[in-house]
Amino acid sequence: MRDNRTLRWMLFAYLALVFVFIFAPILFSVIFSFNSDRFPTIPLGDFTLKWYQKIWNDADVWEAARTSLIVSLSTATIATTLGFATAYTDYRYSFRLKPIYLGLILLPPTIPLIIMALAMLAWFAKLGISGQIMSIIIAHSVLTAPFAMAIIRLRLSQMDPSLEAAAWNLGASEWGAMQRVIVPFCKPAIISSFCLTAAVSFDEFAISWFVSGLNKTVPVIILEIVTGNIDPQVNAIGSFVFLVSITLVIIAQTVLMTSRKKED
Amino acid sequence: MVAMSFFIVRNYRMQEDFVMKNWVKMLGRDYFWDSYFLTWGLAGIGTIVTMIVAFPAAYTLAFKVSETTRRWAIFLLIIPFFTSYLVRIFSWYVILAESGVINAGLSYLGVGPFVMLNTKFGTIVGYMTLTLPLVVILQSFALANIDKTLVEAAFNLGCRPFKVIYRVILPMARTGLIIAAVFCFILSFGDFVSPYYLGGSKPPTLPILIVDTVKSGQQWPRAAVVAVVMMVTLFVVAFGGIMAAYRRRVG
User: Fold this and answer.
1) Is the entire prediction scored with pTM above 0.80?
2) Which domain covers residue A200, as residue numbers?
């Protein structure tokens, strides 16, 4: 292969370009959040913190941040619990309707968000709980539980099934074995699924927008500002949102990776 | 979790009550079919473009880099998947705008300005923001599972690079590649942010139609008609894709 080196070089350059494409929006958003011009472009204007000051003093943003925090923490807790329960059921038991049961659990992510949002809205309106924080939490839990389930199931499949049986033989009750053996073993997966579901919930806007009513989350506020006009405030809020979700994702992945490495 | 199924069933039921009126109203209008085919076209083009753009990158990740590098690359690719899609689209809006970064950069070179917002190009860029990382990951998994000795054998037997890709790599990675394409299509088909902000929303795609119907008109059953049509389409696509992905393997 004569031009192997050039080809290799070109492929690497191409890969770099793809990464640039993927990360450009995030980078520019952060850069422009410090930029003084009303309409951000190059050459850059002066360095400024005024957009941050503006959102810092904005009561709506604080209110939304509080809602988002409540929603994503509760969602993460509920979704991780549900995910753990389903993953454990899948791991331990087999029953006749299991394929259907699993199919139902894995269904939500393949349905477009907008349709989920509409279905949720219709359903909540019927139950009369539309427009409350609760409804966002329920909707997000349904949406994110499959992620949690997948991560925890993957971890359980690495576990030796005889470990649990051994614990029982040594006199542990079923609950005891669960607490002392299974939960500690799954701990990295549980932590990372908690972070990931929190991140998804924190960034989700379609469902929140449809069902939220007066309790706006941060993405809904962003959506409203964006719909109005071009406003660099979005970059400032956006940078903050990026920071939160990237941190969560990095924690999640690092926890999973180090747990894997330890066992290797 | 099981309650999820009820959401959808309820949704179907709700419009079964009004079935005739709303279905006839929606399906009888030209603009519905316009946006149906527009959505198909955009999502289809988006999928093809994304698959082609992603392929060399996935190829590099699968064959040309070490295990550690690949892990890091995938680590990086997962991050944007969980970051705010909305803000990323807004950022593209600013970058692509008439006086935005790209056009300002091009004006130094003496070209442009190009109109990129409110075009199909803008929509495709938006779709790719959403789908490209995922497609690269899925494709590189599909490619990494290929037996590398077979690829080398093809090279050693004097096969040209493009022929190797076409005759050896593509057939072997078929299942994974089709699944990547199906995911890409589903995501693009259901996305309303990029056609709305980057594509100018005229004519509207189906998801925009849903948003408009719900947010301005309170016509939930009509929006449900659109949603059901979308879901049926997606199920057909997904089912067809999965059939195509697995059939050749067995037969």
Assistant:
1) no
2) 59-263
